[in-house]
Specification:
alpha+beta, single chain, 143 residues
Length: 143
């Protein structure tokens, strides 16, 4: 089954695109195809406990997909990429059909690593933004 579920992603961008497409479809197999082979993968969905390892990460996404479906757009990405690792810090904007306004943005970190099967995600961590006064399009200021 491992060979069937893995997909090859030539770039971190391809892997991240597949991640968000699977998420929007509620496609558990597609989602797990984006995750790395390592058993020390970690997923923290906003408001949920940390899931560590393939079985726990799979169960976290199964529960998430059983809940309210939303269109998720990554915004305001700050990407730090090396030869074998790519770290994406960004906002996610969630829009739920039938709701008048998008939900407050989440702050998200996605970490991708390059291995024999290309790029795969090994960490997804999402949390609520600290306040509604922070804007998604605010300029990046590094100190």
């Amino acid at each position: 089954m491992e060979a069937q579920r893995k997909a090859f992603f030539a770039t971190p961008h391809e892997a991240e695109t597949a991640f968000y497409e699977a998420r929007e479809r509620g496609d558990l197999e597609g989602m797990m195809a984006v995750w790395g082979d390592e058993d020390d993968i970690v997923c923290v969905l906003a408001g949920c406990a940390r899931a560590s390892g393939h079985e726990a990460v799979r169960e976290a996404w199964r529960r998430a997909f059983a809940g309210t479906r939303a269109t998720v757009r990554p915004l305001n990405a700050h990407i730090m990429q090396g030869a074998l690792q790519s770290i994406h810090s960004q906002h996610e904007q969630h829009t739920v059909a039938g709701e008048r306004q998008p939900r407050p943005p989440l702050i998200v970190t996605n970490v991708f690593v390059r291995g024999p099967l290309g790029w795969h995600i090994v960490l997804h961590h999402a949390s609520a933004a600290p306040s509604v006064t922070e804007t998604i399009d605010a300029p990046k200021v590094l100190h």
